[in-house]
Amino acid sequence: METKPDQTHDLHVLIAGAGSAGLLVAQVLKRLNIACTVFEQDASPYERPRDWNFGIYWAQSRLDECLSEDMRARVVDVQTDPSHRPSEDTVMPIYNGQTGEHMKDLPAPFSIRLHRRRWLEMLSDGVNIKFGKRLKSVTTEADIVTITFEDGTQAKGNLLIGAEGAHSPTREYLLGIQEAALLPSPVVASVSICKVSREAAQKLRALHSRYVITFHPKGIFTFMSKEWLWMMMQTWRSDADTGLIGRGKEPLKLEKWHEMGRDFGPPFKEIFETIEPSSTIWHNRLGYWPTKPWDSKGLVTLIGDAAHPMTFHRGQGLNYAITDTAELLQQLNGMTEHSGAELAAAVKRYEADLFPRGREGVIASNENTNAVHDWETMMESSLFKEGLQRAESSQTT
Q1: Does the record carry Oxidoreductase as a key word (predicted)?
Q2: Each residue's pLDDT tens digit, 302-351
Q3: Strand partners, 283
Q4: So what's the pLDDT on residue 6?
């Protein structure tokens, strides 16, 4: 069965991926009265068992550009703590994981910490989403792009936006599998959404109401964030599992976290000791992809993690996806008419900004990830010295 462009509109945009970037773009297109359909490979919004939270640190004004006035007012309600009101003096505290000593408060003015599922539910409002649609192939002809799904159905439009995240099939179409492949980071990550003892939770909340970062002299980075459950994350350098990049496998057991936790001081040691035994730990190697130019004549493009998958230690990913969307909005607003040619020209202008900006962000984030896993260089890392501002690479190429 084939899905054709909506005949009541002069343009139809296809979006692959119903994550933050894909749904935010859909909201922008809805405001511009450009028809769009979002295709998501998962069978439902609740298929993935893991949920998490993430922050907006420097892209708040760009987010305002993308959302309607009504939806802007709803953002505070999808925070991990809806009672929190962003302020100029908001900080993220850093502690020495080994001693428990407070090292520094990172400035995070007006930052917002979002609960992922509630955030995506908000962005889904009024958006046409087709679930269970895994992309198989892409073809282009004149000003039409046709996508075929693994279930045999097709959809046609004037533009395909790949927003499937780091493992983007659209990026593979644009550049080929080899050129689109993620580069392995020397750092691995383990994440759990878990319960800890009441006493340990109270001690951790006494340090900060929402989150805590620890650096450990042995090169371990830890992030702990509170909702009704705790999001616990640890990263460190490892030569094991070198081929495992971002696939959410579970070779790491809770006993390993207990073992690592023995080197932590209070209250962090108690956190690891009291994690609920049934907790699932997702473990993977981090990957990244310094953005490379592509040329699809304005018919196929990328946004968010599909365009610039980066490591997460400075919390840049969502902020870059928001910036992508705001920049695309600016170019779409510059169209003189709703035609395929004008749309393609707007996409090319968007890409001219995206290519160098995305590459710089990926490289800078990777440099910072490497730095925070070495105690001496950590003190000179961008995260420790500058906080959660936009990443800038020391490299020029």
Answers
A1: yes
A2: 999 999 999 999 889 999 999 999 999 999 999 999 999 999 999 999 99
A3: 190, 249
A4: 40
Q: 303: closest CA among 266, 343, 353, 255?
A: 353
pLDDT in tens, 159-169: 999 999 999 99
Of 2.110.10.10, 3.50.50.60, 3.30.470.20, 3.40.50.720, which CATH number belongs to 2-50+117-182+289-370? 3.50.50.60
Return mean pLDDT, the chain.
89
Length of the chain (residues): 397
Alpha carbon distance 47, 206 (integer Å): 34
Chain CA centroid to CA 163, Å: 11
CB 283 within 8 A of CB 251: yes
Of the candidates 5, 25, 11, 24, the one whose C-alpha atom is nearest the C-alpha of residue 344 is 11
Q: CA 151 to CA 250: how far, in whole Å?
A: 29
Residue 153 has pLDDT above 80, yes or no: yes
Pairing of strands 220-226, 230-237: antiparallel
Domain limits, the chain? 2-50+117-182+289-370
The pLDDT value recorded for residue 34 is 97
